[in-house]
Design goal:
single chain, 34% strand, UPF0235 protein GV368_08485, YggU-like_sf, DUF167
Length: 105
Amino acid sequence: MSEAPIRLEREALVVRLHVQPGAKRSQWAGCHGGALKLRVAAPAVEGKANEALVRFLAEFCGVPRSAIEILQGEASRTKRVRIATPDPQAVAARLATIASPALSD
């Protein structure tokens, strides 16, 4: 069994993502390969998809953009992202609602 897509840390959480650039709009799309799947409405050109990813996550998680750090996968669809927050459990619970329907399949 693979590792969970959301890992809690002190004052942060690390999320495994599968990012699909060039979508019509930025939105969650369930899970893919043990990661949360996110479609972003920006092309994978000159870092635009990563910028859209950070902007979307910051808004969804209610944190400033500076609290989002791409740890791994800057040039890949598969990414590990760290989200700094004073309440990582609340953000993890919100993200888990994205994963729940797909994980129960």
